[in-house]
Design goal:
Layout (H helix, E strand, L loop, with lengths): L21 H18 L5 E4 L3 H11 L5 E7 L4 E8 L3 E2 L1 E4 L1 H14 L4 E3 L2 E3 L1 H8 L8 H4 L7 H6 L5 H23 L14 H13 L5 H20 L15
Parallel strand pairs: 1-5
Antiparallel strand pairs: 2-3, 3-4, 6-7
């Protein structure tokens, strides 16, 4: 459970060959949840960045049968939300990273969509190129040309609502409601910090690692760990500026 003034830190790193399926991720999460229960640690949420296998794993976790569930219903609009509640670790809510949602909304256009029809209007790359020529345009050249698909700033300036981004935004709304209810019913005396639920820390953590060694091995990553932690804490304090600081937004 995120607490104010408490720095985020990794507990374990588990390498994989990129072949893990949704069932594998689900089993791993449930195993970690069990370990938390044995250690007396409350586990409120588990996050993912939106990859399909991770999203499916989260759905498996949400559908896990338990004796008790945390639920919210609004029949007028067909809203039915719930998550499992465990006796030892409490409600378990699956969350999606907000920064990833912004990037997905922006990158839908850059990946494969060549033409978007919006009512009687249309949008394509030539329109964005024209917008760049207008005085006062908030877009940057790199938002359109040679775009960095991991750029958080660009994701805030350019966004398109395709089906994939719509689904992520819906999950963000659902998780916010469930997190609010969980704090209300189970942790009323614990500050609610929704901005700390996500993979933002890991994105920057691996981004800093890449600033040291762009293509690192697992062994090199372990060796860099303490240096990354120190730099991450300095960057989080806001008292340090670096010409390469933008690289920490690139994630992995």
């Amino acid at each position: 459970i995120p607490l104010p003034g408490m720095p985020v830190f990794p507990v374990a790193f588990i390498p994989n060959k990129g072949k893990m399926k949704a069932t594998d991720y689900c089993a791993l999460h449930l195993k970690l949840r069990g370990l938390c229960g044995e250690a007396g640690i409350k586990l409120l949420a588990s996050g993912a960045d939106g990859a399909k296998s991770e999203t499916k794993a989260q759905q498996l976790i949400v559908n896990k049968k338990t004796d008790k569930r945390l639920s919210y219903t609004y029949e007028k609009y067909g809203v039915y939300l719930s998550c499992p509640v465990y006796s030892d670790t409490g409600p378990h809510i699956c969350t999606t990273d907000p920064d990833h949602a912004r990037k997905t909304a922006r990158n839908n256009f850059l990946y494969s969509t060549l033409l978007l029809i919006i009512g009687f209007m249309y949008l394509c790359h030539s329109v964005l190129m024209f917008l760049l020529t207008l005085i006062g345009c908030l877009l940057f050249i790199k938002d359109i040309f040679n775009a960095d698909k991991q750029d958080d700033g660009a994701a805030r300036r350019v966004a398109f609502l395709a089906d994939s981004s719509f689904q992520i935004l819906m999950r963000l709304s659902d998780q916010f409601i469930l997190l609010t209810l969980a704090h209300l019913e189970y942790y009323p005396n614990t500050p609610f910090i929704p901005s700390h639920h996500g993979t933002h820390f890991l994105e920057h953590f691996y981004g800093i690692a890449r600033s040291f060694i762009p293509d690192f091995s697992f062994g090199q990553f372990i060796e860099m760990y303490k240096h990354i932690i120190i730099r991450q804490r300095i960057l989080s304090s806001g008292q340090y500026n670096s010409k390469k600081e933008k690289d920490s937004n690139n994630g992995y």
